[in-house]
Design brief:
3-stranded antiparallel β-sheet; 7 helices; DNA-binding; 2 domains; Metal_resp_HTH_trans_reg (chains A, B); mainly alpha; Arc Repressor Mutant, subunit A; homodimer
DNA sequence: ATCATTTTGTTTCCCGGTCAACAATTAATC
DNA sequence: GATTAATTGTTGACCGGGAAACAAAATGAT
């Protein structure tokens, strides 16, 4: 196996483990709220004028999936939708007060997870950090170009 | 956002894009075979004495899911199962000739994807590579320890 | 202004994975 | 050796997301 493959595989494994490890605590503190729901709430709070299409593109999911998810969140009273006066097509979302409670709990948990892994990150020099960031950003740009070349669209 | 978060987020995005970008070519050359099926075939070929439980642990999925998946692969004639003479409980899998054909096509595609991203990796020095590998391995070990601490098990 | 094209969001059907309950076998404990 | 506990694999109910067909609105072309 080449180093490229090793690196990719190790990172993939890393993310599987992180998700696996975070799940129980998430479910404990955020009972009744699925990861996808919380993730959606997080995005809506952090981005202005979010609609179904933007959510789909960001999460690499279909508009259909996000349509259902946002409908559920509305039903649960976590988000609400609004439109602009001059546009009858696009529908945007914002958090309700209840949604913000969930958002804050999630942020807090997130900090705990960072804290849990602090030991690892402390051993990384600033130099290494920047090097990795440069790499991953370069790689992302490369893929963006490839995606554009292929002309892929969100379903 | 801290550098830690930035790094993690960028990598997550990276993997989404890779999956998104590889999908169409995979579906083209491996028509009729789903990513999960191919992934499963790959693992069985690369690991000795694979059973449902080992697959579940490696893929961070449930035994139920892998049980269904392997049953489907058997039905399609891509894998076959066998047991050891002194153990009536554990059931292992190996590829059939037809399964090996799929395996080889996948390997070939994999090389093409590596080739596509070669430009990025070429700009990485050996030093950087090793540095990143060390980091991700350290992080993985840290998480393994955390998982062990939590006493998590595959469902 | 009219008509075609594109964008946005929704809905139905289907598939894949989880969960939980289960039987069968093996390992551990006494 | 008998009994209890743990492991392994399977099944059915359930749910989340994808694919595709669709309506409504906005944009473009003429």
């Amino acid at each position: 196996m080449t180093k490229e493959e090793q690196l990719i595989m190790n990172f993939r494994d890393l993310f599987n483990k992180i998700a696996w490890l975070n799940k129980p605590k998430m479910e404990d503190r955020l009972k009744g709220y699925k990861p996808s729901e919380v993730h959606c709430i997080e995005f809506i709070e952090k981005n202005r004028e979010t609609n179904v299409t933007k959510l789909a593109e960001s999460f690499y999911m279909t508009r259909g999936a996000m349509s259902k998810l946002t409908k559920k969140l509305i039903k649960k009273g976590l988000i609400e939708n609004y439109q602009k006066p001059n546009n009858k097509k696009e529908i945007y979302f914002r958090l309700t007060d209840q949604g913000k409670v969930i958002y804050n709990i999630h942020e807090e948990l997130h900090k705990q997870f960072i804290e849990r892994d602090k030991a690892v990150f402390e051993q990384v020099t600033e130099e290494q950090f920047d090097s990795m960031l440069r790499f991953v950003e370069k790689y992302n740009k490369h893929l963006d170009a490839e995606i554009k070349k292929q002309g892929l669209t969100t379903n």
